[in-house]
Amino acid sequence: ILRNPLQRALSDYYASVRTGKEGDEFEETFYKENERKSRNKYPYKSGLYFSRGLYHSQLSYFSKYFNKSEVKIFIYEDFFNNLNNSLKTILEFLEMNSNFNFNTNVRRNVAGYSIKYRKLNYFLYGRNKLKDHFKNYIPKTIRNKITNYINTYNRKIVKTNPNLDLSKNFKKMLFEFYREDFQKLEQEFGINIDNWKESLIK
């Protein structure tokens, strides 16, 4: 399942912010990717929000071991806009009973929020001597209640389309960053990604 690279990057970024792993502004992280890659032992580790949206190389890896007819590719937005039909398509592709009824009412890993105060978030999830000291005196159940309370206080609702606040110049730069990858996806895998392009051109 391939998601719009910009939306994927935003989702990944906000997840890192919520867990205290990210301290830079979203646009700043783009310019720091090369530096972060040199520090990471393995490719596509945390903090590489934009490189992980270069899907062609990732799909090409599967092409080494499987024929195209053996790989089913979905666009994230299309998949969830018509979830029941998408699930039926998967079952048909796997030659399984396509009449099986899935419970699609349960939502998991729902985000929709960021944090208000990053330093407070770092205190909760980062390592520091003061917190380690009090662990010896405060029971875990009490610590969890305190953490949950602070988390609730520190949450900030994120708009459905936060990319609307990104500058046109930045989105234009992203379009150039993904242009070659988009072309390869369309030519080699026949993927229609017009909506992805539109989100970066607006």
Keywords, please?
about 200 residues, mainly alpha, two-stranded antiparallel ribbon, globular
Oligomeric state of this protein: single chain
Any idea what the radius of gyration is?
20 Å
Strand portion, in percent? under 5%
Shape: globular
The averaged pLDDT comes out at: 83
* Helical content band: 55-70%
In total, how many beta strands?
Answer: 2
Q: What distance lies between the first and last C-alpha atoms, to the nearest angstrom?
A: 24 Å
Ranges where pLDDT stays below 50 over 5 or more residues in a row are: none
Can you list the strand order of the major beta sheet? Answer: 1-2
What would you note in describing this structure?
The structure is a single chain. The chain has 11 helices and 2 strands, in the order H-H-H-H-H-H-E-H-H-H-E-H-H. The chain has 202 residues and is an all-alpha fold. Strands 1-2 form a two-stranded antiparallel sheet. Helix 10 runs antiparallel to helix 11. The longest helix is centred in the C-terminal third of the chain and has 22 residues, at 168-189. The chain starts with a helix and ends with a helix. The model has no long low-confidence stretch (mean pLDDT 83).
